[in-house]
């Protein structure tokens, strides 16, 4: 697959050197495991989610990052990006637009973006919602004119997404700051770190840190700490033979029942059941 930067991607679509082909599309209500419940997978297509109701939790394993995708946001996962997808509230399901598509160059090679994922908020860019909805409508129409329209709309959609990502990056945490936070959590998770502790690592006030952190990760610092503890617990359950009580204590839980309750809320299964299902 040929990796392409943002500028070349837009130019390629505009000049007909990159064509986007929709494999399937859907818009509606889904529950676990219709479109979700995927654990540590790679696929050969781009996947786009635009939730209208409900919340998705996505974990990107190659970069060790977890994000929350909800109403007002769009997630695009490029081909071969190793990820897991879960519904935050599986009992309530989710209503979302969902596309699978691939990009092909004029010499019939597959093309991918130089990103692990794209995750943006379109709350102030409603035309982005409109264009994605229009692409969905056009996938229901089999005609050459519809194909040409979809190419033009995809160019507009990606142009807007790249613009949002670029303008929001300046007010988000840098990769170096994210690395510092990850290192701090790794070495201090047993001490039950707080949002104030994370703010102190970067030398920020609590309020400013909370706003910047949520703009970066899509969740509050307190929620992120819980998600990190459960993510690490999941790995320990599968990669070690440590008892559930020992894992809970190493991650700062004095109450193993609280640990089990939070684990099930996030991973849908109890720690014991999770180990049985996904362990070797």
Condensed summary:
The protein is of the alpha+beta class and 280 residues long.
Uncertain stretches: none
- Summarize the helix and strand pattern as letters: EHEEEEEEEEEEHHHHHHHHH
Q: How many distinct domains? A: 2
CATH H level, superfamily name of the largest domain? Regulatory protein AraC
Distance between the termini: 32 Å
Shape: globular
Arithmetic mean of pLDDT: 85
| Number of beta-strand segments | 11
Helix percent reads 40-55%
- In CATH, the architecture of the largest domain is Sandwich
Task: Give me the CATH fold name of the largest domain.
Answer: Jelly Rolls
CATH class of the largest domain: Mainly Beta
Strand percent estimate:
25-35%
- Profile the largest sheet: 7 strands, mixed
Which class of secondary structure composition applies to the elements? alpha+beta
Q: What is the helix tally? A: 10
Radius of gyration: 20 Å
List the helices and strands and how they pair.
Layout: E1 2-4, H1 6-14, E2 18-30, E3 38-41, E4 46-53, E5 55-60, E6 65-70, E7 73-77, E8 83-87, E9 94-105, E10 110-113, E11 118-121, H2 126-139, H3 144-169, H4 175-188, H5 195-202, H6 206-217, H7 221-239, H8 244-250, H9 256-267, H10 271-278
Helix pairs in contact: 1-3, 2-3, 7-9, 7-10
Q: How would you sum up this structure, described in words?
A:
The protein has 280 residues and is α+β, with helices and mostly antiparallel strands. The chain has 2 domains: 168 residues, Regulatory protein AraC (Jelly Rolls), CATH 2.60.120; 104 residues, Homeodomain-like (Arc Repressor Mutant, subunit A). Strands 1, 2, 4, 7, 9, 10 and 11 form a 7-stranded mixed β-sheet that branches. The chain has a 4-stranded antiparallel β-sheet with strand order 3-8-5-6, with helices on one face. A hairpin with a 4-residue loop joins strand 9 and strand 10. The model has no long low-confidence stretch (mean pLDDT 85).
